[in-house]
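Quick check before the chapter quiz. The format below is the same one you will see on the exam, so make sure you can read both the input and the output lines.
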Amino acid sequence: MLLTLLLLISSATAATVTYDFNVTWVTAQPDGFSRPTMGINGQWPLPHITATVGDKVVVNVVNGLGNQTTSLHFHGLYQKGTPHMDGPVGVTQCSIPPGGSFVYEFNVDQPGTYWYHSHDQGQYPDGLRGALIVHDPNSPYKDEVDEEIVLTLSDWYHDQMPGLLRHFISYANPTGAEPVPNAALMNDTQELKINVKPGKTYMFRIVNMAAFAAQYLWFEGHTMKIVEVDGIYTEAAEADMVYLTAAQRYSVLITTKDDASSNFAIVGSMDQDLFDVVPETLNPNVTGWLVYSESAKLPTPAFVDDFKPFDDFTLVPHDKLPLFQDPDYSIQLDVKMDNLGDGANYAWFNNITYVRPKVNTLYTALTSGDLATNPAIYSPHTNPFILEKDQVVEIVLNNMDPGKHPFHLHGHAFQTIVRSQEEAGSYVANETFPETPMRRDTVAVRPNGNMVLRFKADNPGI
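Here is the expected output.
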């Protein structure tokens, strides 16, 4: 009877949160340069999606762009029981055609900081990305927080993605040099002012929604206390600076000063090591401010050229989930960039560069009966791996490229058990693993380095 009562209470408190999104073109100029931008319901920046653990989220999407297809992915949500709602075109759904619609419907049982974005043809840097926050009444830090603030970081391009991508993967760019952003943004502006009160503790939910650029982030005169990464609560850890590769998230607590006579800069700085060539006109930084007093000046941030961010590898999950032992299945992924006969430069896993299948992978699995567990039916160009439910899976990621690269796993968070230094080469199985490894869903592997990741395959899907 007690169990029945608890279930009734849980169902009574859960809500259905509905969003009606008409994706259209708008004009935006967050850095002073006016350009067509993908908005929602005629507006940009985009609305946040917010829910509470246990809620059902319904997003009714209409593609009003007219000249492009689209989709939405809810980055970091595992979509347990609803893998068909994940959003990657060619994997779990077809594109939403111009004038078409799609209803995304899923339950959220994960608290934390996430984001949503188009997952169709590298489209989201044209503006189709926003924060997604899942509140938690049982957060281990709920009694320490007076107010929550969402803080997004992003890079920004003046040219639209279709043209940039055509040039990027073409014979005219044989080295594969990524297009360099024109600007960095903070909450989709370069003039962010966040009003704060003295003696309060704020939880900043930080999301890097960039296409390419990682950013260093710091709050002048204030110390951050990290309490969550990528939806995973952590033991509290103090940091003066954090580094967010594209798609990573942090939640940090900042306690404001008792003296309200001065304001303080918030600084984001793009990692210029990622850029093959740094244009002389590029300002890699974006500045916002913690505003204690409207009458006080907004200070110019101090010059910094020695970046020493917090090492996220040292974080300990709050639940202290121990290391997954004795993997059932090990996958080695050798990453490189190389050219094909067309002269263009492509990314490769194990000497295979991805080619989108004509039939979505999920649809192939659902219509193949007993053959669904045969990787041959999914085309070798999708690099398929077939896992058994509840297997412990180890991924050995060898970066054979001189650049840093972010990697994200859909449907799971992984334990990060090895992260080499730069130029360490391929993994040689001579490391001591942490007892309670950091978990997150997005990591950055260092140039010519390696990482070892483990996760439990407890979420059937693709």
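If your answer matched, good. The mean pLDDT is 96.
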